[in-house]
Amino acid sequence: MSGAKKGLKTIKKMISYSADKTTGRNWRPPKEGENSDCLDKPSVYHATVVIFLEFFAWGLLTSPTITVLSDTFPHHIFLMNGIIQGIKGFLSFLSAPLIGALSDVWGRKPFLLATVFCTCLPIPLLRFNPWWFFSCLSISGAFSVTFSIVFAYVADCTEKDERSHAYGVVSATFAASLITSPALGAYLGNTYNDSVVVALATAISLLDVLFILVCVPESLPERMRPVSWGARIPWEKVDPFSSLRKVGHDPMVLLLCVTIFLSYLPEAGQYSSIFIYLQHVIKFNREEVAVYIAIVGFLSVIVQTLVLSLFMKSLGLKNTIVLSLIFQVTQLLCYAFGTQYWMMWAAGTLAAMSSLSYPAISALISCNADADKQGVVQGIVTGIRGLCNGIGPAIYGWIFFIFNINIDEQKPNVSHNSTSPSDTFKTNPYIPGPPFLFGACLVFLSLLTALFLPDGKLNNISRTSVLLNHNERNVSLSEYDNDFETNDQTLLLRDDINT
């Protein structure tokens, strides 16, 4: 009898050891003094390397891409940029749920490889054929969901109480890559030429692909996958519009979503065109654009960490949201009417402050909604942002086009000490940036809706509508419900891949 018990204990130990070696749930880098080979175990550091290399490669191409865009479409640079970025964003919105659902079945590594490879595929085409480059760039939006897969990867290999910190590390890595790479790309382009920059970006993207192939282990445990790889994936899980259809089920959720839509639509359009606007209309040079990106990015990181925490403690969530929307309206007005360099730098500072809005709204949901509601509501919010990433750039490009703001027709002579709008713009001197004025109007409407947000709990969120969506899925969201924090990039993780 004692021998049987010993045998049973031995089997349990073997099963436990096997589970640790085949699942990523409890894997973590070895602590100091431990003798363990962490290269075979999925960790947050694998995810950070993947993110850093991908976005560092694209950050290098900031200046060369603007140059090629203006050379290829000299008469309609803003319109074509809006169309290209709009198609890319909309395809990303459509494909994100499907890729997330497939990664739940086949694992994270194959889709990390696919998203990074397809997203970086257009890079070498920049110097060979601009038309092929912009065509591939648009289509690559179908795989531009690396962040979603990376956050799912991180969730697989960290404990629940460690995920907030892990997501913060990934987001900080993303910010660091974009802070440093545009400046380096501009420097190399001026010192050598754009071909060197494209070659370096291509090499870094290939290094990223090789790193995933050779060094990144699978994080999704076998026990977490369906029994059969041929398991059916319900349409509700891959339909990108499924979460958006839940918006009208509850007035409070509708109010939150309207606030996000009206504030993020102009933000998406602004981010797609602002660097082209600075370089070709305001006449920043390459180095100034790169420094501008670095400083505004650094300020945004500070704002979303230290300032956000300070404001939420002293002002509360609702007042923080309202204040951030005021910052956003102000910075858009600066871009719309500004013609001097100091106005652009002031607008950049205000833009960093306005980055409080989305994390604060997400915190309002995370802190006040019940645990079983957070995944679905956050999924609705993320779906709206994804839709804005497709619509916003297209609208901005169209407004630039109808106001006849074409680079070849404007020959502004800007000096750093210019004091008169007429010194800078020969056409439409009083509103040089009409899309930004349109965006300011939308954000002002968002500000009005934010005034009706509650200060306390969102008790009016319908439990029935949320549980309906919860029961339609074959997975449980409860395990990751507490993952959503106030970090902007954390919330790129859709609810339908939180498994």
What report would you give on this structure?
- Helix 2 runs antiparallel to helix 10 and helix 14 (317-337) packs antiparallel against helix 15 (341-354).
- The chain has two domains: 42-219, Growth Hormone, Chain: A (Up-down Bundle), CATH 1.20.1250; 239-406 and 430-462, Growth Hormone, Chain: A, CATH 1.20.1250.20.
- The longest helix is centred in the last third of the chain and has 32 residues, at 371-402.
- It has helices spanning 2-22, 44-60, 62-72, 77-106, 108-120, 125-128, 130-139, 146-156, 163-191, 194-214, 235-238, 251-280, 286-314, 317-337, 341-354, 357-368, 371-402, 421-424, 434-450, 463-472.
- It is mainly α and 499 residues long.
- It has 20 helices and no strands.
- Report the major sheet: none
CATH architecture of the largest domain: Up-down Bundle
Count of helix runs: 20
Indicate the percent of residues in helices.
55-70%
Q: How many E strands? A: 0
Q: Tell me, what is the CATH class of the largest domain?
A: Mainly Alpha
Approximate strand percentage: under 5%
Distance between the ends: 42 Å
**Topology-level CATH name of the largest domain:** Growth Hormone, Chain: A
Mean pLDDT: 76
Estimate the global geometry from the Cα principal axes.
globular
> If you compute it from the alpha carbons, what radius of gyration comes out, rounded to the nearest whole angstrom?
24 Å
Reading the helices and strands in chain order gives HHHHHHHHHHHHHHHHHHHH
Work out the count of structural domains.
Answer: 2
Low-confidence stretches: 7-38, 408-427, 456-499
Pfam families: MFS_1
Protein name: Hippocampus abundant transcript 1 protein
Transmembrane segments: 44-61, 73-98, 132-154, 166-189, 195-216, 253-277, 289-308, 320-338, 344-365, 386-407, 436-453
Organism: Hydra vulgaris
